[in-house]
Design goal:
134 residues; alpha+beta; eight-stranded antiparallel β-barrel; 25% helix
């Protein structure tokens, strides 16, 4: 993942759903129809593993469409958006946000010790809040 690009990370999975494979396939097809560059990834959110997608976005319109997919079509709690300034935030269904810091590549060992990270192409990424690092 190019951590300099503006991206959205989202999933269609629900921890209680028995049909996560169908939901993920449907989201894959919906994103493909947008003709935006994207790749599959494994996301870990609050300790739960989910098949996810990392989508390169260039406009607020594209972000809003992906928000609609996540919240309206798949009942997701949040998506992760990294803006053009490389600042990552969670966007929730009610449009509130939570700033997370910068999305950066980290070691596998560090990622596996965390409750939230993304694995794509054998590389691990998480958000790092520089103000809390000593």
């Amino acid at each position: 993942m190019n951590t300099v690009q503006q991206v959205v990370i989202l999933s269609a999975e629900l921890s209680t759903a028995n049909d996560n494979a169908r939901r993920t396939s449907l989201l894959n097809d919906m994103i493909a129809e947008l003709k935006l560059p994207f790749k599959p990834a494994l996301g870990v959110y609050m300790g739960n593993k989910e098949n996810s997608f990392v989508v390169v976005v260039n406009s607020q319109v594209e972000i809003d469409v992906l928000k609609g997919f996540a919240f309206k079509s798949f009942g997701q709690e949040s998506i992760l958006h990294q803006d053009a300034n490389q600042e990552a935030r969670l966007i929730f269904a009610d449009d509130s946000t939570k700033q997370l810091g910068r999305l950066e590549q980290v070691s596998k060992e560090l990622a596996l010790s965390l409750d939230n990270y993304t694995e794509m192409n054998g590389k691990f990424y998480t958000t790092v809040n520089r103000t809390s690092v000593a």
